[in-house]
Structures
1.
Amino acid sequence: MDMKISLVIPVYNEAQGVYQTAAQIHSALDYLRKHHDTELILVDDGSLDDTRQLLDDAFCTDSQVQILSHEHNRGVGAALATGFKQATGDIIITTDFDGTYPFSSIPQIVARMQVEKVDIVVGSPYHRNASMQGIAPLSRLTSMLYRLIVDSRIHSWTSLFCAYRREVVKRIPLNENNVLAETELLVNALLRGYRVAEIPVTFTRRTFGRSHRSKLRRGFAHLSYLALLPLPVLTTRMQRFRSALTPKSVQPVLKD
């Protein structure tokens, strides 16, 4: 067990499905721990129902589970930031609590990162080998726009099911108030030259509760962010182009 994994999951008002989800998470943890030291960090983002108490009950016997809480709902960006600060793993995996991305795919995302030697792996429901149920057309449209503007090789830009090397989440600032936290993290990583791969994953409708993310709000946020992206993307590409044309013998030496 030479590599540690941290699983970071934001949670908000999910009391209806805590025990159902906990059983799936326990199964995934049992498998992962056969091969890796694995911790789970759950961030209750100011739930108004019994979510926190039910989480305590469902995971009370596991010493490698941390359950953190926000006093008020602060959004997915803040929940991820809280989880990242506590994570000690070499690989940090994020996903939704509602099980729309299967927890059984977590070993697959870990294996892809190890084999490909990349910095980020995205669980992609828009991959040609993936299947999906109930994805909003707006999500598909925004991912298509990100492909056009940023990188055509990445099919899904709105997926919370991702794996990051520790260096990525420690070096790239995360806007805690941003409803697009996972998208912004992926875009900034690509602009900084980090290597990204995808795996096809099945996206399914949640079987309990309802989504707490406003599709309309996220849609406007994506469009606003996309409107500002062409300039930094073009600047980054020009810098790489100039670097490729400059002979190594005359490239500047960076000093500490």
2.
Amino acid sequence: MKRTRSDSARQLADVLRRQILADEPLPCEQDLCAEYAATRNTVREALDLLRADGLITRQPGIGTVVVGHKVPHGLNRLGGLAEILREHGEVTNEVRTAGPVPALGGLPTPSPALLAALADDHANVRRAAVQALTPFATTPEIAAHLSTLDTDSDADVRAYARLALG
């Protein structure tokens, strides 16, 4: 007897829910289809079930993101992080280093990992990297990286890169 797509989606959602609650990374849709021999519609339906449970968010141009654990606190008073987290255990603050930081035209330097994300095989990662690098597009090094995306296979990545370069 063949299972319906809804049954398959619920079963896949249960597997993914266990992964998310165990703090395991959530693969992209394409990898989920391959790993679980599921159709794209089944995977999307499973992800919609997880979104309805508040475990993930899905955003165009960014993809599927696991929602972080929320710490409940009242909104009727202001408090620092230590006060909010006191009931969860001891919180200490420690200054690790102090000193002047040289200014770089008001913008920090993007990390090498962010630049490396431009070469990632997943279009959603490249889109996110382009969006994160957009404030740096006026620097020659970043502009050079973004201009290489003009022939990218993903139309959104090309469009984001063109917008970043003005």
3.
Amino acid sequence: MRRSLMSDHPIWVAPLVLAVGGATLLAGCGSSSKASSAPTVNPTSAAPATSSAAPATTAPASSAAAATEVTATETEFKIALSQSTFTAGTYTFKATNAGKFPHALTIVGPGVASVATENLSPGKSGSVTVTLTSGSYEIYCPVDGHKGLGMDLHVTVT
């Protein structure tokens, strides 16, 4: 004669087994995509470095193909650009964090309210594409205190 597994245990075991089994079943309910997918961040996308920054103003995607690339290497506490003279046109600034602390790159000037990379961890890169017109532009790191420590450049576009 076969006996039930529950018949060999005290009376309180059956409700406990059902409660644990039900909790396990309920824990598995819901959308599995929420539990297993994390937000994807594109390190080359333009995004405000801080919540107080104005929305990024970038050139249309078609202009990015014709943009002149400028490398901006960021360290503690300096920004080095691959070129020092600029004429009016579209530029993609590729910022690389070669330092030991997080950095970002922000550009402000005529027609550019505030365009910034995301905060970049050491060794990471990001880029922004902007159309520069004649005038003076400020290029700086918006991470708290970095601008005041020397990560602040002024360029003139002719």
